[in-house]
């Protein structure tokens, strides 16, 4: 499997993950740092932090990071505070606390998780807890972290363009260019001529629009 460079705007991966969640009709997506056999999955560090004793939980509007007390200080230093709620727990003594917490928050919600990253008995317990508030567990066919990292090999295999919209800098260049233009001659309905400063520009070329909106990803 080929992955693209991870040098991108820090919010881009969250945007693509939430887009993937929308496509799967998920309200929450759970990302354990280890698989069911206890092996740490390095790609889970894609979202700021991937400690050995941690679990990330992404909702439509927030992101939660459950970490063992031993990793709490390091996790708080590494993650961006305005993107994460860091929750210290005992991952050894109470490894399933996150499931109880999630069940208390999710009401009539759909929770997604890679089935290879969770024990069967934990899955059964989580389904039972979620059912109390009419929520349920869903296992997408593809790990969503894999999906957002998957690089385009063929056009038909594209799942998400690798782009991020950040229009401010290039729009500023255009606005500056408009201000520097010479006044235009305007003829009124009464055939009176006057000089008028330019106030805008019409952009109709798809290439120019892509440039302005920073849509420089896969076509």
TrEMBL record:
Top-level taxonomic group: Eukaryota
InterPro entries referenced in this protein's UniProt entry, alphabetically: Creatin/AminoP/Spt16_N, X-Pro_aminopeptidase_P
Name used for this protein in its record: Creatinase N-terminal domain-containing protein
Species this protein is from: Jaapia argillacea MUCL 33604
């Amino acid at each position: 499997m080929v992955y693209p460079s991870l040098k991108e705007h820090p919010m881009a991966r969250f945007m693509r993950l939430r887009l993937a969640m929308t496509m799967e009709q998920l309200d929450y997506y759970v990302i354990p740092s280890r698989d069911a056999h206890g092996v740490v999955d390095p790609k889970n560090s894609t979202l700021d932090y991937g400690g050995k004793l941690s679990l990330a939980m992404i909702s439509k509007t927030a992101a939660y990071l459950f970490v063992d007390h031993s990793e709490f200080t390091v996790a708080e230093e590494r993650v961006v505070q305005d993107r994460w709620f860091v929750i210290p727990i005992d991952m050894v003594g109470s490894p399933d606390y996150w499931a109880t917490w999630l069940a208390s928050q999710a009401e009539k919600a759909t929770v997604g998780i890679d089935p290879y990253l969770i024990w069967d008995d934990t899955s059964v317990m989580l389904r039972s807890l979620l059912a109390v508030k009419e929520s349920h567990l869903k296992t997408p066919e593809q790990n969503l972290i894999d999906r957002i990292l998957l690089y385009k090999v063929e056009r038909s295999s594209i799942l998400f363009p690798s782009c991020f919209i950040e229009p401010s800098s290039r729009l500023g260049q255009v606005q500056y260019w408009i201000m520097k233009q010479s006044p235009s001659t305007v003829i009124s309905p009464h055939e009176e001529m006057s000089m008028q400063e330019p106030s805008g520009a019409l952009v109709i070329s798809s290439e120019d629009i892509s440039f302005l909106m920073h849509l420089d990803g896969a076509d």
